[in-house]
Design brief:
The structure is a single chain. By secondary structure, this protein is α+β, with helices and mostly antiparallel strands. It has a domain at 88-265 and 310-340. It is 35% helix and 20% strand. It contains eleven helices and 13 strands. The protein has helices at residues 7-21, 28-39, 75-86, 103-111, 113-133, 188-208, 224-235, 251-257, 299-307, 329-340, 353-361, and strands at 47-52, 58-62, 94-100, 143-151, 157-166, 168-170, 177-179, 241-244, 271-275, 278-285, 291-298, 318-322, 375-381. The strands form four sheets. Strands 8-3-5-4-12 form a five-stranded antiparallel beta sheet, with helices on one face. Strands 2-1-13 form a three-stranded antiparallel beta sheet, with no helix packed on it. A three-stranded antiparallel beta sheet has the order 9-10-11. The model is unreliable at 390-396 (pLDDT under 50).
Length: 396
């Protein structure tokens, strides 16, 4: 069922005015995201006509934008990704580990998303691998799935990684599964300091290579001395890395992963009101026992916060680490299963799109919503882009 309000409704009503007022500050990615969400499942993208072969109901089915920032377009992608991960789960406990960066680093990340996000992934991955490989801690090659998030409940900018980590790994000679101590993955303080060390070193290397760009309030960081001072400040503070208690087994892991993969800054279901120039939405205040509250923002501020979390074109915000890395995941997982004495999982069977959609999401596009008959495609609907509005037109 379509939510009463959608992010698309906010953009259709206030997007043009926002673009006019912020033209100099928006890049290609932000503009494309706004246009895609506005057009998603509307005549602008075309589609096809369907008719029930029983009761005769006629329905126009418009195409999705498939933009990864669109709140409506991630359901099937998420379900398909989780199904693929199902075959990779091992019968061991799993930990949830979160890596965050201090605000002084997050400011640099916002102006250099592609470079600093990559550094964030690499620093977290290397820190986990280095600490886990140390015989004093685990003495094994571990694996992890890492997911980039950049938002909190109120859509403020807060880049961090969520990692799901099996409680153990492969011995250095690849002949044993080395299990973690019950309820304990790796020493968090050691992990956070190694994470900070690698992150800072890679930031210095990126600056020396001319890969970082600064503007506005951060323009002075282009000077080597000023950048060096900022980096020195990062070394002087503790970086936050924490590991939550392990899951009881692999069964709850996928449901938990589903909370973090293929998500956007805010779900349509959280929007409660769009009145005049204001947008209201629910949020959980974890500093107040997780109570659900309502926040009201000016439409411009709502759109600004939403666009803070766009990801550069082609950037992978879900990555696999250690023995789960893409290059050798199949072989390493087969070895893990052998060492754990568990059977190999069977690959999924290919199936038509609509059947897969129904199985994964519960949505049956080929079933009539009125009588339960079969919806048959009758013909295409051409794209009908909305008329271009003059730049002075106020979309509100």
């Amino acid at each position: 069922m379509r939510p009463t309000l959608e992010v698309a409704d906010v953009l259709r009503r206030h997007g043009a005015a926002f673009l006019n007022r912020n033209d100099a500050h928006l890049g290609r990615v932000e503009r494309r995201v706004m246009a895609a969400i506005e057009a998603c499942r509307t005549p602008a993208l075309g589609g096809h006509v369907e008719q029930c072969d029983d009761c005769g109901l006629v329905r126009c089915a418009y195409n999705s934008c498939r933009n990864r920032h669109c709140p409506k377009c991630q359901g099937l992608a998420r379900a398909a990704w989780l199904e693929a991960r199902q075959a990779e789960l091992l019968p061991v406990p799993y930990f949830h580990v979160v890596f965050t960066m201090p605000p002084a680093a997050a400011e640099i990340a916002f102006q250099n998303k592609r470079v600093v996000y990559a550094i964030l992934f690499r620093a977290a991955a290397d820190a986990m691998r280095d600490v886990a490989a140390n015989p004093r801690h685990l003495g094994a090659e571990i694996g992890a799935v890492a997911v980039l998030h950049s938002w909190g409940q109120t859509m403020t900018y807060h880049p961090h990684l969520h990692c799901i980590v099996p409680a153990g790994g492969l011995s250095s000679d690849q002949t044993r599964w080395v299990a973690c101590r019950p309820g304990f993955l790796l020493p968090v303080r050691v992990l956070s300091r190694r994470f900070r060390e690698i992150f800072v070193a890679r930031m210095r290397a990126a600056f020396a290579a001319g890969e970082l760009r600064f503007s506005g309030a951060l323009a002075a960081l282009a000077e080597p001395a000023v950048f060096a001072e900022r980096i020195a400040g990062l070394i002087g503070v503790e970086w936050v890395v924490f590991a939550k208690p392990p899951f009881a087994g692999p069964e709850p892991v996928l449901a938990y992963l589903g909370r973090y993969t293929h998500r956007v800054a805010i779900a349509n279901s959280r929007l409660t009101r769009l009145t005049g120039d204001e947008v209201a939405f629910t949020w959980k205040d974890y500093r107040d026992s997780g109570k659900t509250k309502v926040m009201t923002l000016n439409a411009d501020e709502f759109i600004r916060r939403f666009l803070l979390h766009t990801v550069p074109d082609g950037f992978h915000r879900i990555r696999h680490i250690g023995f789960l890395a893409n290059g050798h995941r199949t072989e390493k997982l087969a070895l893990c299963r052998t060492l754990l004495a568990v059977p190999r999982s069977e690959p999924p069977v290919a199936e038509p799109y609509r059947e897969r959609l129904r199985r994964l999401t519960g949505h049956a596009l080929d079933v009539c919503p009125d009588c339960g008959g079969a919806m048959l495609e009758r013909g295409p609907l051409p794209r009908r882009p909305p008329p271009r509005r003059p730049f002075w037109c106020d979309s509100s």
